[in-house]
């Protein structure tokens, strides 16, 4: 597992495209910091904070899905996967190694860019609240991780990189862009009393939504979701919330690990 | 033997002599006092109902508690120039009109007192130039904290009122000043009915059903108040304005309410320099005409504004954090008009659960689908580039931020170098 992890990390950080991510994140994050800086209030959750979170939600999941799915699809296309199959390698360690290595690499470049962008904004003369910065940072890193895992899941069953790309974009479009519209459409056809429990349940189905809601709550603005969520929010606002998030995280990881492992095993046998 | 019986009888009679106890009651002291006298009440619990009709001062020494459960008020004040200081009242009369302190007449002074009541706290009936300040009123939501009926030119300030029906209620009462009072946990913080020319200044009304309600009043000044977190009821709002004319609502802070300012059937009012933050709806107009909404700051509201059947309102030069801003002329105002489209109201009207999608990335698509009817949008022709007032802005010191930034760079760089190494 550690070998896969290390080689994945080494391969990724040595790629030229890796450095283009550095430029991308620095550009995007500096822009977001500038935006936030022009907002009048840094304390609460404002429209600007919402915009900043939205831009992160647009760009991070898309890239992470593509990177995650490509990292496996690539090896399948160029035959490295076949080669690896001849080694006595447990599939789960392959999956974990892939995710771990890729996440470490992406985390490094994101953290580095975050630091650089912060420095740039500070030089320009911006002021921030530490709490806000940490909220944005953790929000982005969680998105990074969750969508890398989903990307690897996609990679485990596609045949080509082209397929990986199209499925990634499709999933991104569904989970990020059209999620509210789709839900409103679907929930319009169920009995009224089902809507509330279904909305609560579906919140946990889409990790992007859950992370976004957790981010808003972490900035003490849970009330923007209205009274319908008072009971849910009262759970998520207490220290119990950590437990819920950890539990969710474990469930999410086990499901995705099992899925990608199963897919790869099935593929090995063919 | 019979002599002994006689002596015992006399002894008992002497001990039970009523004159002795009667002289000790507060009421008897009040009866005996000459106008202008100050009666100092020693510490203790007094179970009486007091009636004060002449200009005297009652001053408590230490903890003085007057307790009564009778139908009549614990303290009745009439005439002129009565002063009450450092007195606590515990009143448990349950009648519909039962009140702890009843005041009529003029120029009375109540300071530094505490009232715990089952019904009303203080009722002013036809009173004028009364000064009520630095007091505490706690109730059970069954009566008003301070109730003014046909009482004018009174001043109520620095009161702390909790759990009443209406914190301060004014009806047919004019030219009163309500200043720096703090009201919470009540139905309405301040409630004005048919009351003109009153001044509401620097009061705080939080966590009530509605912060303040103005109904059928004219020329009221509502300045520098804080009406916040009034949201626990489906009809909750920070400030409710109904049938109000020629009033000025300025420099108030309205945060975290269901509706910040709700205005219905009102004309010629000015709303300026208010801070409207984090409400479900910032301002809502219904049949409100010829009002002026200018130089206010709107930040973080789910729906900025809604206007139904309202016309000729002058909406300009407000700061909207949701507006796209472009200043071409350097005048501090944007050339792009801001249209406050309450599409979220349309979405959540039937299914409140959909509010979870507030500022969700996919909502831009929805926004186009859910365009509000044209008669519900409010347009600011010249939105401001900057806020009109200081909005709270906590900044962490630059050194801590630099430390965080440098720390991130160092950690990631070292991991990068480790990661690049050949094994």
Provide a brief overview of the structure.
By secondary structure, chain A is mainly alpha-helical. Chain A has twelve helices and no strands. In chain A, helix 2 (16-38) packs across helix 5 (91-124), helix 3 runs antiparallel to helix 7 and helix 7 packs across helix 8.
Give an overview of the whole structure.
- Chain A has one domain (2-269).
- Helix content of chain A is 82%, strand content 0%.
- Chain A has helices at residues 2-14, 16-38, 47-77, 80-85, 91-124, 130-155, 161-177, 179-187, 192-205, 207-218, 230-236, 240-269.
- In chain A, helix 3 packs parallel to helix 6 (130-155), helix 5 (91-124) crosses helix 12 and helix 7 packs across helix 8.
- Chain B has 423 residues and is an alpha/beta fold.
- Chain B has one domain (42-355, 366-380): Pectate Lyase C-like, CATH 2.160.20.10.
- In chain B, the strands form five sheets. Chain B has a 13-stranded parallel beta sheet, covered by helices on one side.
- Chain B is elongated, with a radius of gyration of 30 Å.
- Chain B starts with a helix and ends with a helix.
- The chains are: A mainly alpha (270), B alpha/beta (423).
- At the A-B interface, helix 1, helix 3, helix 5, helix 6 and helix 8 of A face helix 5 and helix 6 of B.
